[in-house]
Amino acid sequence: MTYQIPFVDLQAQRERLGDGLTASIDRVLEHGQFIMGPEVAELEAALSAFTGVEEVVTCSSGTDALLLPLLASGVGPGDAVIVPTFTFPATPEVVALLGAVPVFADVDAETFNLRPDDLELGLAAARKAGLRPVAAIVVDLFGQPADHADLAAVAEEEGIWILADAAQSLGASYRDVPVANHGRCTAASFFPAKPLGCYGDGGALLTNDPELADRCRSLRVHGQGRDKYDVARVGLNARLDTLQAAVLLEKLRIFEDELERRSQVASRYTAGLDDVVAVPVLSPDRTSAWAQYTIRVERRDGVASALSSAGIPSAIYYPRPLHRSEAYAGAPRAEAGLSVAERLCERVLSLPMHPYLDPTTQDRVIDTLRVSLR
Length: 374
Ligand SMILES: *Cc1c(COP(=O)(O)O)cnc(C)c1O
What we know:
Layout: H1 10-31, H2 38-51, E1 55-59, H3 62-72, E2 79-84, H4 90-97, E3 101-105, H5 116-128, E4 132-139, H6 148-158, E5 161-165, E6 173-174, E7 177-178, E8 185-189, E9 203-207, H7 210-219, H8 242-253, H9 255-273, E10 293-296, H10 300-309, H11 339-347, E11 348-351, H12 359-372
Parallel strand pairs: 2-3, 2-4, 4-5, 5-8
Antiparallel strand pairs: 1-9, 6-7, 8-9, 10-11
The structure holds pyridoxal-5'-phosphate.
């Protein structure tokens, strides 16, 4: 029988966390403050210390962490928000939900991230469509920060603001500064398979703008004003559960070590594969949270099925650029086309990646992949 290896090993992490995790869940069951209990504020303070960002507003998902700041900023009909087309569907979705238009831009072939030129082309497309560009959502795909300084320079010149989608990159750094310090606001996700995941849905938005943070705090509880029945604005129910906050506090304790292990796993993959496939390219001025280790390979289907036969899972993030999906068929896009993203969707393949991938198992992945290419 072939031993099936996990793509992400949450059980190994669970064993490591041991009794401390169970005890912290038990504490919540004891005090019974399941909504906005003390662990929520504790987690917000811990994330603030971890990133150096002043304001942390936890919320119910990474998607809501993107939605809240856009809603708080009054983004709506007539507005355009530039988004990369090679990303998870939540990125454009929050824009469209507010009645604004996501304008799709291409990405870099090696880092998978939006480049300053792509942003410029997206802005031109938005204006050509008669829309008012107000913001861009910059995604740090697979854990590697985008070119935040150069993108910020374009944004400033063009009079738009940047919402950073760090759903995959919390824990990484750009020019020695932790992710979440770039752009006006940053969204993080605690979906279980993200580098820092909880046991359900969860997210947080991080910003150094106290006014924006306050509005988002109000919006996450039905637009609450001075008290519960003072409704200051139309909001939603977007709080993080106390239980998830308790879980995240435990996981945050070992997060630095896990990031280091992910980075070692990535290095081992690169050393074992860089002569046969296109391995991820990490820019020298940044670190990655290694949410995914994504190679580019011709004959992808053959490689994936060879891995699968050997009990090795792989995944395609993403099989289709979002401008090609039914939901966004009519959305404006950069005039120069989105060919880099289209081509990436045909070649990318993500390999098992988690902090507990031992060298022997990893060598099995590497060897199987090499054999499949012969
Ligand atoms: C996961 C993810 C999201 C959404 O996060 P959820 O917590 O699942 O809502 C948004 N953007 C990107 C790039 C993601 O990977």
